[in-house]
Amino acid sequence: MRIRKIDGAKGLSLLKKVGLRNCRFRVQQEQDYLCVPLIREPSASELNEFKMALPEFEICIRPISERVEPQPKWNDLLSDRLPPHVVASLPHAIDFIGDIAVIEIAPELVSYKQIIGKAILTAHKRVRTVLAKSGAVSGVYRLRTFEIISGEAKTATVHREHGCIFHVDLAKVYFSPRLSYEHSRIASQVRQGETVVDMFAGVGPFSILIAKKHEDVHVYAIDVNPEAFEFLKKNVLVNRVESRVKPILGDARQIVNEKLNGVADRVIMNLPEKAIEYVDAACTAVRPYGGVIHFYEFSNTPSPLETSKSRVAQALENTNRRLEKILLARIVRGIAPFNYQIVVDAEIR
Questions:
Q1: 317 and 228 co-located in one domain
Q2: Is 164 within a domain?
Q3: Total tally of structural domains belonging to the chain
Q4: pLDDT tens digit sequence for 273-311
Q5: What does the pLDDT look like over 120-156, one tens digit per residue?
Q6: Percent of the chain clearing pLDDT 70 (strictly above)
Q7: How many CB atoms lie within 10 A of CB 143?
Q8: Rounded to 5 degrees, what are φ and ψ at 248?
Q9: Which of 33, 35, 37, 294 is deepest in the core (most CB within 10 A)?
């Protein structure tokens, strides 16, 4: 039925009253008119009723689209399957890495973890595996243990971010999609002709995006984890940036001292647990006339930004560099209550 928009509310109400509207299909617009799908042709008596209520309408044939119902949220699927006190403890955040979903299961949810995993698979059709964190990030390689609670038994996937492709295995390398904005932010600051040293490159999210965005750059991507190094090399190739990114396996301090002394316009220090111990190495990597360091750390102090800025300044006092100015200090993300990951961009001379 084709009716005027200004009569839309009255027409829809009347069609609902007589049971003619077909809700499987969407109401479509034609300029100042609405085309409302019907389940059948109206009877003579129904047409008379419409004529009395609507000044203008038409029964016509049009191509129409089936209504797409909104996908239910995964936690909504659990509202009638879990006790109320358990529903209140469901995690608020899910990390999606390729076709893998990663969640944190609170102790009171452990006995329901398979149900939770299946709900996530149902709500997110592209997800093939649901992993639950079963340990904290730890060790030199910053690895975490996971438990497969639903879907395919795997920890490897292919993640896409900002037009880049990253092969990762979450059991063997560290990767966080929550740093997506930081990857883009740093890449956007790089200028043509710069040389960048990525001291803790992992599988390459900073290095590769920089190289994809800029044709005339040189990036040295260092990582001490042999597994991460292999993924880094693979990702450099699949993203076709092998002419601009050089993967290097080894400890960042040793590599800088032996091969990269004074080459960098910019140094990325994304190792929050230990970056403070490498400020002197970052200074060694920076060109003699100076450059920029992007320093990351965790902080649980009452004033995390001011604390991190002070720590960078104090660390620089023990080097042959001086702090020209703090370009930026921001909270990257929350790690736990009152515990944050901080980034400080510092220009040094």
A1: yes
A2: no
A3: 3
A4: 999 999 999 999 999 999 999 999 999 999 999 999 999
A5: 999 999 999 999 998 888 888 989 999 999 999 999 9
A6: 99
A7: 18
A8: -135, 130
A9: 294
Q: Which residue has the tokens 């699949």?
A: 238
Report the distance separating Cα 279 and Cα 330, nearest Å: 18
Question: What would you report as the CA-atom Rg of the chain, rounded to the nearest whole angstrom?
Answer: 28
Amino acid identity for residue 7 in this structure: D
Backbone φ and ψ for 72, nearest 5 degrees, come out as -65, 145
Q: Collect all residues with Cβ–Cβ distance below 8 Å to 102 and sequence separation of at least 6.
A: 94, 95, 96, 130, 131, 132, 133, 146, 170
Q: Which domain holds residue 32?
A: 2-58
**d(C-alpha 268, C-alpha 292), whole Å:** 9
Q: Tell me how far apart the alpha carbons of residues 108 and 179 are, in angstroms, rounded to a whole number.
A: 29
- Going from the C-alpha of 46 to that of each of 11, 78, 228, the distances in angstroms are 12, 43, 70
Beta strand 164-169 pairing with 95-97: unpaired
Tell me what pLDDT residue 85 has. Answer: 80
The continuous run of DSSP H or E covering 302 comes out as: none
Q: Quick one: 123 and 192 in the same domain?
A: no
278/134 Cα distance (integer angstroms): 29
Please indicate, yes or no, whether residues 136 and 210 belong to a single structural domain of this protein: no
Please indicate, yes or no, whether residues 244 and 338 belong to a single structural domain of this protein.
yes
Q: What CATH number is attached to the domain comprising 18? A: 3.30.70
